[in-house]
């Protein structure tokens, strides 16, 4: 008897370079859990109609109620000061609720498909036994349930009424995609190399602890950030996935790629795919020490 293994990429966006990456846009969303002084926790889940929108709901944890409020979404890498998104959300919540304290706050990414529907089924340009479920947007609870049913039926060779609707093969192949993909595999080889004087970059960027910025120096782009202890970190801003330039995410202290959502730590380590290789670390040396 032949046994066929099946692989499902349930990794938010699939790793590597895939046609789907050209049809999914990464967005960042913000949420906070607050306690209220007057106990007026909403009973339902409510959304407003602002752009960007907000939503509110109540969550009880160990007998304690929290109002969860979220929103202030924006395309990844398109907001210079992501900390401001939390403060705007907080101001909005305080306008409508009697906030006692902010217990938790967090932000993360989601992926929006170009035509509004997730991609669930065979991963395009891969074998018949390789599947994907991605692009749920802000509706992960609903679409993950749909995906579980479709993928179960595809793997067990049953008909599913939704399989055509959500099929990733509804994407038209992009002409020249294979050579485009091959060219992009070389991105990581375009290295900055050499070393740079710490003092010159410090003067150029003038970063406070927690801040990051991409600077131009001696014809090279360098992604600089300063950690809470004051140490300067320098990496190449070129995303190792397909070569876009990363942007600093102040709130999460990470380098985020606006193209397909890869994220890296301040010292360039991959935090989330689709990238699988770290950003190149740029060597910094004190010019004074180097002369002596
Ligand atoms: C702030 C915020 C609020 C939201 N609120 C709601 C809401 O109220 N209701 C709703 O329905 N949706 C909501 N969403 C959307 C929802 O969270 C997403 O649509 C959903 O989580 C996507 O599910 P996923 O399984 O595709 O990816 P994820 O939930 O990101 O899961 C992917 C998993 O794969 C793992 N992984 C990744 N790469 C690899 C690898 N190479 N090897 C092994 N594991 C890997 C990751 O660690 C992760 O655990 C919200 C999103 C955000 C950001
Ligand atoms: S995630 Fe694709 S280029 Fe950065």
Question: What does this protein look like?
Answer:
The protein has 292 residues and is α+β, with helices and mostly antiparallel strands. It has two domains: 1-181, no CATH class; 187-291, Rieske [2Fe-2S] iron-sulphur domain (Rieske Iron-sulfur Protein, 3-layer Sandwich). The protein contains six helices and 17 strands. The strands form five sheets. The protein has a five-stranded antiparallel β-sheet. Strands 13-14-15-16 form a four-stranded antiparallel β-sheet, with no helix packed on it. The termini are far apart. The mean pLDDT is 88. Bound molecules: flavin-adenine dinucleotide and FE2/S2 (inorganic) cluster. Residues 10-12, 15, 29, 31, 70, 108-110, 134, 136, 138-142, 144, 273 line the site of flavin-adenine dinucleotide (FAD).
- The radius of gyration is 22 Å
Distance between the termini: 72 Å
Q: How many helix segments? A: 6
- Biggest sheet: strands, sense, closure? 5 strands, antiparallel
Question: Structural class, please?
Answer: alpha+beta
Instruction: Name the beta content range.
Output: 25-35%
Oligomer: single chain
Query: What coarse outline follows from CA principal-axis ratios?
Result: flat
- Sketch the topology as an H/E string, one letter per element: EEEEEHEEEHHHEHEEEEEEEEH
Q: What are the low-pLDDT stretches, counting only 5+ consecutive residues below 50?
A: none
Query: pLDDT average, as an integer?
Result: 88
- Which ligands appear in the coordinates? flavin-adenine dinucleotide, FE2/S2 (inorganic) cluster
Q: How many domain regions?
A: 2
């Amino acid at each position: 008897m032949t046994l066929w293994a099946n692989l499902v990429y349930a990794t938010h966006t699939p790793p590597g370079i895939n046609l789907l990456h050209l049809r999914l846009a990464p967005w960042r969303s913000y949420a906070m859990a607050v306690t209220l002084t007057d106990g007026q926790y909403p009973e339902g889940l409510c959304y407003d109609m602002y752009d960007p929108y907000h939503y509110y709901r109540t969550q009880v944890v160990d007998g304690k109620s929290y109002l969860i409020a979220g929103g202030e979404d924006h395309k990844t890498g398109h907001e210079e000061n992501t900390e401001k998104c939390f403060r705007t959300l907080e101001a909005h919540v305080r306008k409508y609720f009697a906030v006692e304290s902010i217990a938790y706050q967090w932000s993360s990414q989601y992926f929006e498909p170009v035509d509004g529907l997730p991609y669930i089924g065979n991963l395009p340009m891969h074998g018949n036994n390789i599947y994907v479920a991605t692009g749920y947007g802000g509706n992960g609870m609903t679409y993950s349930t749909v995906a579980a049913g479709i993928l179960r039926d595809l793997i067990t060779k049953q008909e599913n009424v939704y399989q055509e609707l959500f099929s990733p093969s509804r994407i038209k192949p992009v002409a020249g995609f294979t050579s485009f993909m091959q060219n992009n595999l070389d991105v990581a080889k375009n290295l900055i190399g050499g070393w740079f004087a710490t003092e010159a970059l410090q003067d150029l960027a003038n970063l406070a602890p927690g801040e990051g910025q991409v600077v131009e120096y001696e014809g090279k782009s360098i992604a600089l950030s300063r950690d809470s202890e004051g140490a300067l970190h320098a990496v190449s801003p070129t995303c190792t996935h397909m070569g876009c330039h990363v942007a600093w995410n102040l709130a999460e202290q990470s380098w985020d790629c606006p193209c397909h959502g890869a994220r890296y730590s301040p010292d360039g380590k991959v935090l989330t795919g689709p990238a699988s290789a770290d950003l190149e670390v740029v060597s910094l040396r004190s010019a004074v020490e180097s002369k002596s």
